[in-house]
Structure formats: structure tokens, C-alpha cells
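Write out this protein's structure.
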Amino acid sequence: MLGKKLLGEITPKDVERALLPKHAPATRNRALCAFRGLFGWAVRQGLLEKDPTAGMPKEHETARTRVLSDEQIRTLTKGFDQTRYERSACSS
């Protein structure tokens, strides 16, 4: 969407159109963070006068809780080398 535009030609509306409209708010927020990183760098380098994402709010994300099963924890800890983490997980 932005590939043919020069960096200085990108507007806030362009960014809004590029923020993956069919995806979940969390995905769009991650894309906005990536744009902010790019445009912030460009401003610091003197390539842009202002960040087109300035003032764009993040979207509300639904809180999620993810809990690993016992089997997933065992698989994860088996991947550790002989560290205090591996020893303590296996001794339980």
C-alpha cells in the first residue's frame, strides 16, 4: 500500500488504510507500533519533519489469559540446558 510513496508523502490517512483493517485490534496495534518505530527513526535521522502516526491512538484490546498445560511445560523445560531452570523443573 505504501510501497510507491516517498517517505515524506505518507499521511496519517495512508497509515490508517495500511493498518490491516481485516485483522484483530491486537494485530493492528502491533502494526501501528512498527510504523511508529520506522517513522520515529526517520524523524531522528532528519528524513521526516514529523511522524504521521503521532496522535494515533491504539485500539482497545481484549485481555487474554494463556496457561500452559502440564505437557507443554514439560516440553518447554526439556529444551533448557543443564541450568537451574531445568533442574528445578524436573525435580518437582
